[in-house]
Amino acid sequence: MAAEGGTKAILAALFANAGIAVAKFVGFLVTGSSSMIAEAVHSVADTSNQGLLLLGMKTSKREATSEHPFGYGRDRYFYSFIVALVLFTLGSVFALYEGIHKIQEPESLTTAYVAVIILLVAIALESYSFRTAVVESRKVKGDAGWVKFIRQAKTPELPVVLLEDAGALLGLVFALIGVGLSVLTGNAVWDGVGTICIGLLLGAIAIV
Fold first, then answer.
1. Which residues contact 47 (CB under 8 A, 6 or more apart)?
2. Count of domains for the chain
3. How far apart are CA 161 and CA 50, in angstroms?
4. What long-range pairs does 3-7 form, CB within 8 A, spacing at least 24?
5. Is the pLDDT of residue 177 over 90?
């Protein structure tokens, strides 16, 4: 039951993030927004993580061998660790660099409404993915609180997807605020500030 719920939540997140990543890259090319490229990298990291979580779930089911007498159950933790350490750390560094560069050399956004539309649609899709993860998690967490469930879950997939989706929604809000303030004030520095916030968020996710 838990495995099926984890797979469903991962697939929902994977397809949502893959589509969102493409849309964000297009948004960056059209608007030049650093928040959009930072969020695109965020979505790529999320998508990669979900793909590796699925791989970890598959390989962990292999039968024990002489080299691995206790089986491959740790694979699912290994892949999650690698993604968090590498992809989110690199994404954080990239976003911080882009944000600082944007603040130092602000450039006005072009057709910013495109970025706003993409971000609003992305928030809707991420909300659906997050809701799916919450529903599936409730089926297995029992009476445990959310913090306890995330820290002590026997399988990492659902807690990871929950945290990623929550982080993705927060990142989208940062991007929307950054782009929105840039449009309202005519000052592209706000886009850079939003990008730095996304970079700090990615760094926090990597640490968690």
1. 14, 17, 18, 21
2. 1
3. 8
4. 3/57, 3/155, 5/136, 5/137, 5/139, 5/140, 5/158, 6/57, 6/136, 6/155, 6/157, 6/158, 6/161, 7/54, 7/57, 7/157
5. yes
In this structure, how many other beta carbons lie within 10 angstroms of the beta carbon of residue 36? 30
> Which domain does 60 fall in, by range?
2-207
Predicted pLDDT at 168: 87
Q: Tokens 């996710």 identify what position?
A: 205
The answer to whether the CB of 61 falls within 8 A of the CB of 72 is yes
32 backbone φψ class: left, alpha, beta (φ>0; ψ -120 to 50): left
Residue 87 confidence (pLDDT) above 80: no
CATH of the domain at 24: 1.20.1510
* 135-174 pLDDT tens trace: 888 888 777 788 887 777 776 677 777 887 888 899 999 9
Q: Where would I find the H helices in the chain? A: 2-31, 34-59, 75-104, 112-141, 146-152, 157-185, 189-207
> Taking 70 as the threshold, does the pLDDT of residue 83 lie above it?
no
* Distance, CA of 123 to CA of 120 (rounded, Å): 5
Using CA atoms, how far apart are residues 12 and 16, in angstroms rounded to an integer?
6
CB crowding 69-93: b at 16 or more within 10 Å, else e: eeebeebbeebbeebbeebbbebbe
